[in-house]
Amino acid sequence: MKIPLKFNDKHLKVAASFRWKRFFGRIEFYVDTGSATSLIGPEDAKRLQIPAGSLPFQENAKIGGSSLALHKMENVVLTFRTEDEKSGNIDNDIFLAAHCNRDTDNSTESCPSILGTDFLKNRRIALYFHPSENIANFEKSE
């Protein structure tokens, strides 16, 4: 399965349909190979009405200048549009939802939803990136 990524001069992004229990919606993820942790950012969690603060606590993190608490969701499904315009599901045993540690921290806009190296490694997904040819995609053996 080949999943095309969007590339501009600064970022790699990919849109996915998110599904967990009764929560679902579309999320645009930043592909961040400098991050070991994948997460649903606070704004996306709020928009999808995911009760991040009431989920089992996983760890604290400082991301993009925001102090975040990461909480665990189990059995999340992400659906991507493949190169041949089909849908491809990727199951995730554990995925993290973020929310601000303090009510006074309003800098969550600096913390988007992220697919990090854990997502690639744990699901055996390769990242192909050729910026001068404007080619970027995920490749997963089926």
Task: Describe the protein in words.
The chain has 142 residues and is mostly beta strands. It has a single domain, classed as Cathepsin D, subunit A, domain 1. Helix content is 8%, strand content 54%. It contains two helices and eleven strands. The strands form two sheets. Strands 2, 3, 4, 5, 6, 7, 8 and 9 form an eight-stranded mixed sheet that branches. Strands 1-11-10 form a three-stranded antiparallel sheet. β7 (66-81) and β8 form a beta hairpin. It is globular and about 40 Å long.
Classify the helix fraction into a percent range. Answer: under 10%
Overall tally of domains: 1
Weakly predicted, low-confidence segments:
none
- Rounded to the nearest angstrom, the radius of gyration is 15 Å
Q: What is the molecular shape?
A: globular
* Major beta sheet summary: 8 strands, mixed
Number of strands: 11
Q: What is the CATH architecture annotation?
A: Beta Barrel
Termini Cα gap: 7 Å
Oligomerization state: single chain
Overall mean pLDDT score?
Answer: 90
What order do the helices and strands follow?
EEEEEHEEEEHEE
CATH topology: Cathepsin D, subunit A, domain 1
Q: What is the fourth-level CATH superfamily?
A: Acid Proteases
Strand content: over 45%
Which structural category fits the helices and strands? mainly beta
By CATH reckoning, the class would read: Mainly Beta
Count of discrete alpha- or pi-helical segments spanning 4 or more residues: 2
